[in-house]
Amino acid sequence: MRTRLRSLLKDNRGIATSLMEATLVITIAAVLSTVAVITSGDQVTDADINSGKSEVKLIGISVLSFMQDTGYAPAFLLGNKIGPNDGITMILESEGTDPDDSTGTWPLKDGAKDLLKHQIVENNPGDSKNPYIRVGDLSYARFQGWNGPYMSKVSAGDPWGDRYLVNIGFATSQGAAAANLPAGRKPAVFVISAGPNRSIETKYLQAADEFIEGGDDLIFRIQ
Length: 223
Hints:
Layout lengths: L1 H9 L4 H56 L20 E3 L6 E2 L11 E3 H5 L44 E2 L6 H7 L10 E4 L5 E2 L17 E4 L2
């Protein structure tokens, strides 16, 4: 019996050797599978980050195009009231979930806000059914008027389901005055996604010339 067992162990085609080979193959396959899953996860994360970066840039360029056409920021709540004493929104936002705010500075739960699509897609500021003056309706040539839509649509949240935000109020004379920065200093205006950790780490109010991005936030500067 012992002789037969030794023979099986020594035989390259024996049962014991086959089981060892099978176990080794299964172990290697499991390791490779784990590595593939980890690599795939990294690729998805990179794809999400790149998608978020593209979207904040697209939103920012759309806002800049609006400003170039009209001469003012997409921040007013009534299209026929765009003066220095008229109602403005401090934050433009996409649809989605409010991200966490680790800075404690963003007025996410209250304050004047408007949807990005109202301003740069629909020409329906403040959901008021009171549009901005459109291109061709102005009697002077310096600015054309609202010449959108500036985006075909605004994504319903960033790749992690949170809102894109723009602190657009600081691009108006009212908002800049409320920022109360030293004379000659302008507040930074930017588009932001809270990024993969879903927590904003960039302060809402900063001087444009001393701007600091926080954490893994995705940002496009407008001012």
